[in-house]
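Submission sheet (multi-component)
Chains listed below:
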Amino acid sequence: MSGGWEPVIGLEIHAQLATRSKIFSGAATAYGAAPNTQACLVDLGYPGVLPVLNAEAVRLAVRFGLAIGASIASRSVFARKNYFYPDLPKGYQISQYELPVVQGGSLRIELDDGSSRTVRLTRAHLEEDAGKSLHENFQGLSGIDLNRAGTPLLEIVSEPDMRSAKEAAAYMRRIHQLVRWIGICDGNMQEGSFRCDANVSVRPAGSTQLGTRTEIKNLNSFRFLERAILFEIDRQVGVLEDGGRIVQETRLYDPERDQTRSMRSKEEANDYRYFPDPDLLPLEISEALVAEVRATLPELPDARAQRLVAEAGLGAGEAALLTASRELADYFEAVLAAVGPGQARLAATWVNGELAAALNRDSLGIEAARVDAQALAGLLARIADQTISGKIAKEVFEAMWAGEGSADQIIDRKGLRQITDSSALEQVIDQVIAANPGQVAEYRAGKDKLFGFFVGQVMKLTAGKGNPAQVNELLRRKLAS
Amino acid sequence: MQGDDRSIAELARALRERSTSSRELVAASLARIERFDGALNAFITVTPEQALAAADAADARLARGEGGPLTGVPIAHKDIFCTRGIATTCASKMLANFISPYDATVVERLAAAGLVCVGKTNMDEFAMGSSNETSFFGPVRNPWDLERSPGGSSGGSAAAVAAGLVPAATGTDTGGSIRQPAALSGITGFKPSYGRVSRYGMIAFASSLDQAGILARSAEDAALLVEAMAGFDPRDSTSADLPVPHYVAELGRPLAGRRIGVPPEFFDAGLDAGCAARLREALDVLRQLGAEIVDVSLPHLGLSVPTYYIVAPAEASSNLARFDGVRFGHRSTAASSLEEMYKRSRQEGFGAEVRRRIMTGTYVLSTGYYDAYYLQAQKARKLIAEDLRRAFDRVDVIAGPTTPTPAFRLGEKTDDPVQMYLNDIYTIAVNLAGVPGISVPCGFVDGLPVGLQLIGPAFGEAAVLNVAHQYQCATDWHRRRPADPPAGVKR
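Outcome: structure written.
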């Protein structure tokens, strides 16, 4: 950071847990239902109703804790966070306060310059979401939709370990990758399943004391997070350099104006009057449950990337790309298994290259790829056995993507099989030499660059099907003689 | 017209033998309510049509030989239990227009056992009070003296049973709200252990203290009904997943060898001399029945009132936050902003005592006061519970007074909340410790009933009911009835 200021950033990420029913009731959690059709009496906070904890939400929280190497509290406590708001039916949110279920843990983030650093986590705790207030389409009124009320959330709190907006975005991406990888959250940011609050402060470089922080609420994209933090750092440095003081407050990011603005100051903040919820017993988690969840935990992204480097000989960058999601890594490993371990680099190049480009172009996820792993392996096998060249293979891939059949069917139908018959290639080469006496003379006089011209002519006459290595070798021999 | 003096067991037997019908019993109950509730004000809602229909259904089942041991017996529910399709007001203006869309577990279980609900009884607003004077629907009158309070908060249930309007009624007890009105109204009031009866559908006052129970004419009746109400409920995380003993089967056990503890702290200067005399007589009866009376000490008993008046309001301040005028209940029409709607709806919807407790509770949970009040109270609560636990290492049951005095006059304590709170001094420790307690009639002072309180260890309801029943086998205080009040007078 310019001007000798060091930003200090910590994030609070809210991940909606992928349970079928709510955290304290049996109502469904599916997104997009008509307003107030997925809220039962418990979600509505009716007189006399009581919360009952969803055991699956606990398992998912434990899963997260194990994935980040945190300790799982054998006893944690649900507390009430009291405040009035129309979309908060009970007048309090059930959350965890003093004793959260997941304590500690850490995560490694990788930066664009290839360096990496470790971000420590403070805690992750279970809580219920509130409903939604709808201010549009109601003349002079507000609408309340309580479908979301009681949806299980895991609030993941980091230590203030990040020093730039880029690091914060990298950390948010890493958590996003992890929660989807271990299947505890669908990560859908448009639907609000994954959202983030950023705590930002700045201090003179070299200082060990924390500056006064502000909290930017409800950031629902990586880009907004990065932009909001960049703006906020600049704003705080500006205030301090003008001799002002930072006010501890909650701020909102306005993407239209690309700036943050004050929402409420610390003085205006609610006194939440947290106390243990007497309707719920302390949450006790046995060693046996932890062991059971641990046994179902998949190989984690870092471990998997390292294995791809070690076993398949991939580069670290390639491996990182292939482990962006568990589905992608599964796809890659399925291709690799079908095409054979000797073709790891070829498989990696194709999955990260042509396949990724096609998915991106059609805005598809890997699970919706129009060429499945077996089919791609069929194509790569034809490259490996020199039936087709890499260039022809791209044409075949496009045809496969368009649903025209398997690699072999397309190669046969379009007659794309590579010419590897030396006598046939020699015939074509002889024709080219005969037709271009001037260029032959120049080449032989030392104009090496013309070699490419001859290759091009041969490929033109073979419609691209000449085996490139063979063509090169035969041409070189014939031109030398 | 005379009240029916038969016990629940006798009524049930008569029903099974077809010597009476549920319609006959329910109609008699409705007729007495019609005739005398003008004077007593024990009911907020009476449901004759539903009750008679349910009675006919019960008779049909009995005719087919399908009825259970309680089928067809009339009962009333305290208006804190949610009853589907029937007003559930908690005696508050806030919920005066609230019709519950569901039944509380207690209501559901008693209906499943065949009991017929005749209506909803009056109470202190949101169960906050010891005199039934905080009800939005007006005070209940004590059948023994209409100028006096029947106690609270289950005062309507107590008066209805004492006056023979119903053979039994449900109640809830957060700091004495079953036992104290039972004592002041001359009936039996039983609060089981915390967690024994589901709280689902019982409108919460203080969740860690609230417990449902029964107001009836005898320990035997209470045992029969609590057996039908009790047991694990997956909808209440604090309900105990323990089998419910067959309480009735243990009632007959002789008292020889039972150890009954008497703490000197229960016989302090605050206890009325007349009440103390009745209690000593009751202890003599127990001794004559073969029980051994043992001194036990509850050194922290004096902390129970201040502890309770921190814990209960703290929880109440949060529990009552849902009454915000948004989804149900009273909403002020005079508000022009959200903030104002909250303030006015709650100001208009809640009575003075409820507002006082919400403010107290909000205060003790606030930043800067939490440690000094709420946390200290939790520590004191542990000490009080530990006192009782230790005492039960030595004795089976603890005996003492239920209240410091007999029924007080209406209006006598309404200007002094602390005097009112001190009325619960002997009952509150039981709630703080989560143990069972019963109040049984043990005589009169100046024509007003006095209650003997018996307390047991957690989930030791059987011992409490056994001692109470044996006492009632040897005495007839629980059979005494007040004269019928003047008919048809609505005060």
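Remark: Chain A has 15 helices and 17 strands.
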